[in-house]
Amino acid sequence: MWTNTCRYITKNPLLLTLLMILLFLPLIASWGQFLSSGFLRETVSVSLLFWPKIDWKVAVQLPGWLIFGVISLIYTGGILWLVQKKKLGQAFLFILVGLIAAKAGGAAFQAISGWSTTQPIGAQSLAGKANLLVFATWHNPLWEELVFRGIPFLLLTLIYRRYTDLPTGARWIYLLIPSLIFAYYHVPGHGLGALFESFLIGVLWAWATLRWGLLAPVVLHIYADAMIIPSLPKMKNMPLEEIPWLVNHSMLLQSIWALCVLVFLILVLALLIIGWRKARKAY
């Protein structure tokens, strides 16, 4: 019954429209920032192999317009593919609930262990780093999904010569081992307090890959990081002179985001009640 209810909710056209607006808003904000600041004309150092707090890394120099254009195409293509396959609503709602649960689990772990997290970037000096911060919210989640979910999944498909219906043991290995490495990867930048939360989130992204394919966690992981972009003018110590486009359009962007979230929550609740009643009558 609950499966039918969820299907009813996630196929609603108004819900999908709201989701697409929410997903594309950070992309629009980022393009506005990069075009107005001239960032797209600059050469950007794109990290291919690195580890937080370690100087060694492998990087390539690419034009800003090229690398962000490619990321934008991957993100946009992923959204449209999820819509075409009728997976966007289901994946978004599942990830939303999963992230809330992971945050709660992480908070409980911090309270029990006594370990703390480091200060978020919003509390640090960001002079001269505005464009790099915006770019990192797109590059980092894409890189993490390709490395921690994409490469292990590719290895499993090569070993078992199939990408669906993997053996149970292989699924558990995929869910746990890369997620442990993913959690450890976040310790240098976020502290030991983030260890359990990062592990749970890693399991969440891995499960989403097995359930909906790699594009689902790529799109939703990017959005989970990039959704802060329209709100950058409110971040502490953010150099406002470096983000004039976002400052000038912050009221519009944040109003659209808040309105979409409000309507989205009301719509989900209404559809949940209607869908549950319909599913109950069917049984």
UniProtKB/TrEMBL annotation:
<dbReference type="GO" id="GO:0004175">
    <property type="term" value="F:endopeptidase activity"/>
</dbReference>
<keyword id="KW-0472">Membrane</keyword>
<keyword id="KW-1133">Transmembrane helix</keyword>
<dbReference type="GO" id="GO:0080120">
    <property type="term" value="P:CAAX-box protein maturation"/>
</dbReference>
<feature type="transmembrane region" description="Helical">
    <location>
        <begin position="65"/>
        <end position="84"/>
    </location>
</feature>
<keyword id="KW-0645">Protease</keyword>
<dbReference type="GO" id="GO:0006508">
    <property type="term" value="P:proteolysis"/>
</dbReference>
<feature type="transmembrane region" description="Helical">
    <location>
        <begin position="199"/>
        <end position="224"/>
    </location>
</feature>
<feature type="transmembrane region" description="Helical">
    <location>
        <begin position="169"/>
        <end position="187"/>
    </location>
</feature>
<keyword id="KW-0378">Hydrolase</keyword>
<keyword id="KW-0812">Transmembrane</keyword>
<dbReference type="Pfam" id="PF02517">
    <property type="entry name" value="Rce1-like"/>
</dbReference>
<feature type="domain" description="CAAX prenyl protease 2/Lysostaphin resistance protein A-like">
    <location>
        <begin position="132"/>
        <end position="227"/>
    </location>
</feature>
<dbReference type="GO" id="GO:0008237">
    <property type="term" value="F:metallopeptidase activity"/>
</dbReference>
<protein>
    <submittedName>
        <fullName>CPBP family intramembrane metalloprotease</fullName>
    </submittedName>
</protein>
<keyword id="KW-0482">Metalloprotease</keyword>
<feature type="transmembrane region" description="Helical">
    <location>
        <begin position="256"/>
        <end position="276"/>
    </location>
</feature>
<feature type="transmembrane region" description="Helical">
    <location>
        <begin position="91"/>
        <end position="115"/>
    </location>
</feature>
<dbReference type="InterPro" id="IPR003675">
    <property type="entry name" value="Rce1/LyrA-like_dom"/>
</dbReference>
